[in-house]
Specification:
The complex is a heterodimer of chains A (112) and B (111).
Chain A: E1 5-7, E2 10-13, E3 19-24, E4 31-37, E5 44-50, E6 53-57, E7 65-68, E8 75-79, E9 88-95, E10 102-103, E11 107-111
Parallel strand pairs in A: 2-11
Antiparallel strand pairs in A: 1-3, 3-8, 4-5, 4-9, 5-6, 7-8, 9-10, 9-11
Chain B: E1 4-5, E2 10-14, E3 19-25, E4 32-38, E5 45-51, E6 56-59, E7 62-67, E8 72-77, E9 86-93, E10 99-101, E11 105-110
Parallel strand pairs in B: 2-11
Antiparallel strand pairs in B: 1-3, 3-8, 4-5, 4-9, 6-7, 7-8, 9-10, 9-11
The chains are: A mainly beta (112), B mainly beta (111).
């Protein structure tokens, strides 16, 4: 299967700890997106890469959040000094055209 | 700022009948609109899309209608099947940058 994969699927961490999530996009897709989804809401855009360049960041992405996409392949999203408000589903999507985006299964983060 | 709104949190339809899911948007710069379907514990799955230069797009049982003057789009599913039961998200983008999503509508198709 060549869909978008995300690891881990679930992460439980204590407040103040750092966490890192990984996303592997569909291989021929040069665009990669990160979203956050909380209960009862649609996904909210966090950031976007075209190849290895990070082209856009939402104001939701505080300085505790950082994302990378070395060599334009997989991407990582790191959250430093996690807070309980960071508990959410973190979704990654990739796209070839920039229009239809294909989502991974998400990483559910619980901060205790 | 909620630029994309789905005002119906839930919809229940009998199998075989038509399901109509609605979405409103406020940003006139949006040029591409999409519908995604989401099952529990999975990421959203792309369903159908429409460019702002069109007013209708069909794909099998799914049809999306766009009314730009009203800033409104809708998804029609005919005939509805129990397997269509899921949360449906409307999304919009401007020049293929970040997508803005509605809060979703939970569709239940009863056998």
């Amino acid at each position: 299967d060549t869909g978008v994969s995300q690891n881990p699927r679930h992460k439980i961490t204590k407040r103040g700890q750092n966490v890192t999530f990984r996303c592997d996009p569909i291989s021929e897709h040069n665009r990669l997106y990160w979203y956050r989804q909380t209960l009862g809401q649609g996904p909210e855009f966090l950031t976007y890469f075209q190849n290895e360049a990070q082209l856009e960041k939402s104001r939701l992405l505080s300085d505790r959040f950082s994302a990378e996409r070395p060599k334009g392949s997989f991407s990582t999203l790191e959250i430093q000094r996690t807070e309980q408000g960071d508990s959410a589903m973190y979704l990654c999507a990739s796209s070839r055209t920039g229009y239809e985006q294909y989502f991974g299964p998400g990483t559910r983060l619980t901060v205790t | 700022d909620q630029q994309v709104k789905q005002n119906s949190p839930s919809l229940s339809v009998q199998e075989g009948r038509i399901s109509i899911l609605n979405c409103d948007y406020t940003n006139s710069m949006f040029d591409y609109f999409l519908w995604y379907k989401k099952y529990p514990a999975e990421g959203p799955t792309f369903l159908i899309s429409i460019s702002s230069i069109k007013d209708k797009n069909e794909d099998g049982r799914f049809t999306v209608f766009l009314n730009k003057s009203a800033k409104h789009l809708s998804l029609h599913i005919v005939p509805s099947q129990p397997g269509d039961s899921a949360v449906y998200f409307c999304a919009a983008s401007e020049e293929f940058n970040d997508m803005r999503f509605g809060a979703g509508t939970r569709l239940t198709v009863k056998p």
